[in-house]
Here is the input.
Amino acid sequence: MWILPVRGKAMVWAITACCCQGFLLLGYDQGVMSGIIGAQNQFGHDFGNPDATTQGLIVAIYDIGCAIGSLIVFFWGERIGRKRMIMMGAATMIIGTAILTSSTTRAQLYVGRVITGIGNGFNSSSIPVYQSETCGGAIRGALVCLNSTITIVGLVIAYWLDYGLSFVAGPVQWRLPIGFQAVFALCLLLQVTVLPDSPRWLLAHGYDEEASKVIALLEDHDSADHPDVIQARKEIELSLAQESEGGPFRYSELLHGGPIGNFRRICLCIAVNVMQQFTGSNMINYLAPVVYQNTMGLSRDLSLILGGCTSITYMFASFIPLWTVDRFGRRPLLMISASGLSLCFILAAILLSIGTRPAAFAATAMVFIFQIFLGIGFLPIPWLYPAEISTTRIRARGSAISSFFNWMCVFAVVQMTPPAIANIDWRVFIIFAVFNACWVPIVYFFFPETRGLELEEIDHIFEKGGITGGVWGSKGGRTTTDMHYPAVTPVEPKDDLKAEEVKLEHA
Here is the structure.
């Protein structure tokens, strides 16, 4: 297959642009339906004026589709490969969009929502892994965080396109916003088709020659025999050899402890995504107009405008980690984010308990500050951390299972929050304040720092052992340090075995 004729930084940025396109599609697809669904607009007229329960099902069934897509990646993603999974995700979303845009019945609408969700599940599970495995440790955090930033750009585009078309009569009011996501999906398909697959996946599956060529492209070298390329390949092969000592992969490996600590890694992958969804982010981002109108007593028009402004604030805040995640690390940003989110909810609850209009406006200000703290840490890092913390052997499965729990928690929170607001009003903020306060010690005691480490170095992150995997007692949660491999020079074929033995001794 023809590969884009660029290398070095240009190739890394081409891959990043593709991954950002996938997350732009993710954000748009998440936000587009919430702005057009209703019983009193054209969409409601065309689908029999659905009640609140049916509207909630139309929105939430998409998350079930995403969870199904993530499970498919969990079982078959490693066999298919990162690149082909993303291609399948884009193609599936195009099919789902066609079904949605042409819908005339609720049944067709449900089918389209599930299919687009499955495609998005493919992408959300595979893209962070693909991005992480094709860039260096020094910039990996910023590039994956950029993907998350673009997610919010997609959300903002969806929100304001929905709002603008709400003033237009006829089915175009909802068919155009839904159909427009096919443009993003087609661009993603075209982009990923001309990019190489992950060199780590290629080496793990026996495509050694192709892997060397991809490493040369990423390292900006003309030849696959360059010493830097050979060294990078040997480091990956050594890591894979250590992971594969037990023979072919078995799902029981995900429960193993020991120095590799697969079970710890899977628990962290799941935990960071569950924590993200129970920060209260979905209540604010996808139900903001409902919160403003029902909880804070603002008018419907003002609530819609404030909802759009909230998403814009979130978008600008999401740029902050691009400069901080590789400088200060993952742990500090998560703890600062959780502390700020908890404080915002506490202050908002206190202000709303007063029951005056000025206090309601002050609580609204807390929601905007909430978005800033969310963008700092708990927006990007749950997408980055699972792909980092897993070994190459289980990375696709670790990312997929974390994505599965992410979408199931989205479904749960979106279903639980409206009745919670209806029954206990502003007191729901107290619940999320407590959750966020709990995340701080959990991160401090159990989450190792991965800043600046190459993926093969992260393999050694739990070798200290103990209840916390060595995190407690390690300065800044840094349980392993940068490993400096000796320079590798080309050797004669007869010396290959000897060179490999020397390499193992150094490691």
User: Anything to note?
Assistant: Confidence is low (pLDDT under 50) at residues 484-507. Residues 26 and 151 are 6 Å apart (CA to CA). The longest helix spans residues 395-424. The chain is about 75% helix and 0% strand.
